[in-house]
Specification:
about 110 residues; about 0% strand; mainly alpha; rod-shaped; single chain
């Protein structure tokens, strides 16, 4: 009796466990993407600081700053796109799990 109850509980909890796994994987991907973006932005900032030391006139300064801003914008935009892909993949996986969990066996 207890074994049957345990099996039934394990079976009914399986979709929830899988959902938690999907969410954990998504958060890991999001965290890694954010770390990579932050590292790239920091490298660009260090490079910008080094380039600024070579500036000899205001036009160069403005040009360097525009290039730096554009580079950061591209990095953040790319990170955002990657984050959205990760979220969408997780959402699709969870929707599929929910549909499977709600569909009676044999249908």
């Amino acid at each position: 009796m207890f074994q049957n109850l345990d099996e039934m509980m394990q079976g009914s909890l399986a979709p929830y466990k899988k959902m938690i796994e999907v969410q954990a994987e998504m958060l890991e991907r999001l965290s890694q993407q954010q770390i990579e973006c932050t590292q790239a932005c920091m490298q660009a900032t260090v490079q910008q600081a080094m380039e600024l030391q070579k500036v000899t006139n205001p036009q160069e300064l403005v040009q360097l700053q525009l290039e730096y801003s554009k580079k950061l914008e591209e990095m953040v935009s790319h990170a955002s796109e990657q984050n959205m892909k990760s979220l969408q993949q997780a959402q699709q996986a969870i929707q599929q799990l929910a549909m499977q969990a709600m569909t009676p066996p044999g249908k």
